[in-house]
Amino acid sequence: MDQLIEDLRVALAPGGVLAGEEAAAYPRGPWTRLGEPLAILRPVSTQEVSTILKLASAAGVAVVPWGGRTGLVDGCLADGAVALSLERMAAIESIDATAGTMTVQAGCILQTACEAAEAEGLFLPLDLGARGSATIGGNIATNAGGNRVLRYGMMRDMVLGLEAVLADGTVISAMRSLMKNNTGYDIRQLFIGSEGTLGVVTRAVLRLRPAPVSQDTAFIGVASFDGVVRLLRRLERRLGGAMSAFEVMWADFHDLVTTPPARGRSPLFGRHRFYVLVESLGGDAVADAARFEAALSEALEDGEVEDAAIARSLAEREAMWALRDDVGQTSRDGPIIAFDVSLPIAAMEAYVDEVRAAYAGRWPDLEAPWVFGHLGDGNLHILVRIPPGAGLTERHVLEEMVYGPLPAVGGSISAEHGIGLAKRDWLSLSRSPEEIALMARLKHAIDPGGVLNPGKILVPPPR
Ligand code: ZN
Questions:
Q1: Residues ≥6 apart with Cβ < 8 Å to 53
Q2: How far is the CA of 395 from the centre of ligand 1 (A)?
Q3: Using the 8-state DSSP alphabet, how is residue 127 labeled?
Q4: How far is the CA of 324 from the centre of ligand 1 (A)?
Q5: 107 and 80 in one domain?
């Protein structure tokens, strides 16, 4: 190991190797466990990433890629491994306004990329709570989802080309910017969502859209889940594909983020069972606003919704989104687990009731799980207090409560956060034995030494 560190110090640019006290002093956030890596490596180029992987492979040392380190499934945990942080590869290399593409290095912060696109009159639609810390490479490695999947898809749908480095140091350069390229296996997609287990993403070509001219946002109170679903279908129909977000909060999440000590205030006066945050993006400010308002008025007249507030300024719109993003309130009195299940909308209400009843039955003194999510694309977030003093057994019971009912309704244990280490033991609830075996064959074929992020997604084979 010492020899590997020595070799890396010689091979990498100054500041490329943090070991010992420097590694221990590395900043750690509240959400993501990083473990105790043997060293933290900070390459400045694809060539350096390749060198790191070659040397680590030869030394038989595991490599755990790090992006923004804001994931929620222990994908960055690097005990006994070297961590490979892309933080010094953060450049936006170019923006092609004619083609509508951006070429970017993996360590670029999502928000920085979005702002750079905006400055050119373009739009990178990926939007999620960790926008200020998550990186493009991390978004690709985890196939990030977020608030606008309904209209623009997941990260998978925004990557036109990428560059990745394999465990043996081979650089796979597929930096193309074509929308259509049917020339055999789609190698990009192999790396997207692979959570750093098949290769280290170093650069990408992203698809941009024209910047929207109009952005209409409303906060809506609804009396029943059936009303929520009918509202979703109505807006899909009436807004003609312009709807970009349909976020739903169950009442107790809304109450949590609108009651002190939370700083937010509800845009609505009355109490409702469900709250919907709708956003629509379009190309004609006046006509789009009129259509948006008309659609909501009809929903009010038909009794589908109880009340609605339309954002009249940027500040009002941001205040509405801030409620949705104020997830931190759920952990102010103790640690939580943030689940991100996916299931058919028709099964959601009964599923949530079942989970909450099971939780209340076992831990009647704790707050009920908070529920909100990207309902328009079938994704719910369930935030659950970890009972004080809970050990592995209680944690397992808790996970069983959330995951157990999903196979019967065709749901998934992860809509967008990924599997990492945290959900690995539950993968078989969402994937067949044949699927998991194929994943293992791919992993072995591409990384036979098991060097890249070993133990994440799949149980590593015995050595
Ligand atoms: Zn989410």
A1: 63, 165, 166, 167, 168, 169, 200, 451, 452
A2: 22
A3: B
A4: 10
A5: no
